Amino acid sequence: MLHLGRTAQKRLSNIGCSHVHSCVTTRRYSTRKTPPWRPSFALDEWVQRDARPISLRQLTFFGRTLTEDRLLNSANYVRTELPTRIAHRLRDMQTLPYIVLTNDNLSHVYELYYKAFERFRKIPEVKTIEQNDKFCAVVKETLKEHLTVIPRLVRGVIEVQDYMKPDSVDKFVTTLLRSRISRRVIAEQHIALSDTFHELWQYPGAEIHDDPNNADHVGEIFLRCNAREVIEGCAKVTRDLMQKMYGLDCQIPEIHIQGHLDATFPYILSHLEYIIGELLRNSIQATIEQLASCNQTTPPSPIDVLICETPQHVIMRISDRGGGIPRDVLPHLWSFSKGPHRAVRLKNLNQVPRLAATMQELKGPPQKGRTNTQGAVTNLRRDSSLSSLASRSPDMKLGIGLPMSKIYAEYWAGSLEIHSLEGYGVDAFLQISKLGNKNEHITTRATMDAV
Question: Which fold has domain 22-210?
Answer without folding.
Answer: Butyryl-CoA Dehydrogenase, subunit A; domain 3 (1.20.140)
